[in-house]
Amino acid sequence: QAAEDWYRARCARLHERAARSQEAVRASRREAGECRRQLQARLVEMESLRGAHQSLERQLQELEASLPLQDTIGQLEDDLRNTKNEMARHLREYQDLLNVKMALDIEIAAYRKLLEGEETLFNMGSSGLPSLNSLPSPTYSFQPRSFSSST
User: Fold this and answer.
1) Cα 122 to Cα 137: distance, rounded to the nearest angstrom
2) Which H, E and C letters describe the chain, residue by residue?
3) Tell me: the pLDDT tens digits for 79-135?
4) Does this model's pTM top 0.70?
């Protein structure tokens, strides 16, 4: 009886191990199949890219043979250099104009203060004259213009 129980327990464990092994084999086969599919997809993609690369190489060779690229590159570099110089000149002109505007704004502010000071003195000095008090007092206001650049 004991030997038979041992035998059955041993067989049960072996069957259990066999079932786990079979499941592991199935999982490995599924994984191997997935790897094969991925490999096939990568091979197809690689062949496609290789064909596209060869096509682009042929187009590049055709373009190099048909265009005088060095002349075009030289001309474009000259155009770029000229454009940069022109932009630098415009920037200097803009900065000069901005400096002039700032100086004018300062001068206008100074004149405004002078006019307000004279207005105050005028109002204080004319308080004894009834005919001048009936006149409305002038006020000076300055609203600076904003200039926008379309660069």
Assistant:
1) 9
2) CHHHHHHHHHHHHHHHHHHHHHHHHHHHHHHHHHHHHHHHHHHHHHHHHHHHHHHHHHHHHHHHHHCCHHHHHHHHHHHHHHHHHHHHHHHHHHHHHHHHHHHHHHHHHHHHHHHHHHHHHHHHHHHHCHHHHCCCCCCCCCCCCCCCCCC
3) 999 999 999 999 999 999 999 999 999 999 999 999 998 888 888 876 654 444 444
4) no
Burial grade of 99 (CB within 10 A; 0-12, 13-18, 19 or more) = exposed
pLDDT per position as a tens digit, 35-48: 999 999 999 999 99
- In this prediction, residue 125 carries a pLDDT of 75
CA dist., res. 107 & res. 105, Å (int): 5
